[in-house]
Amino acid sequence: MGGTDLLQEGIFLAPYSLETLTYFNWAPCQPDNFHQNQHCVSISKNDALLRWDDDSCVVNNWPLCQRCA
Ligand SMILES: [Ca+2]
Ligand SMILES: [Ca+2]
């Protein structure tokens, strides 16, 4: 869904603008940076309230929204 802490662990930035994110809706126990390899924000499929999870950046996920170029 966008957002990453690739540049500095625990500091999540917006894609493209690289503004520091100030709003979060993390699922319980997230972000956990599991295996020290989760740096991209996704919507947790395991959370009934669709809260957020930090996930691997190489996992293919569906976009939250997308427009034609
Ligand atoms: Ca991380
Ligand atoms: Ca996680």
Question: What is the approximate shape?
Answer: globular
| Arithmetic mean of pLDDT | 92
- The helix content is under 10%
Bound ligands, named by name, code or SMILES? calcium ion
Q: State the distance separating the first and last CA atoms.
A: 18 Å
Report the count of strand segments: 2
Strand content: 5-15%
CA gyration radius, whole angstroms: 12 Å
Number of helices: 0
The profile of the biggest β sheet is: 2 strands, antiparallel
Strand order of the largest sheet: 1-2
Low-confidence stretches: none
Order of helices and strands: EE
| Helix/strand/pairing category | little secondary structure
Could you describe the 3D structure shown?
The model has no long low-confidence stretch (mean pLDDT 92). The protein contains no helices and 2 strands. The protein is low in regular secondary structure and 69 residues long. The chain has strands at 40-43, 52-55. 0% of the residues lie in helices and 12% in strands. The protein binds calcium ion (CA) (2 copies). Residues 1-66 form the C-type lectin domain. This is C-type lectin domain-containing protein. InterPro entries: C-type_lectin-like, C-type_lectin-like/link_sf, CTDL_fold.
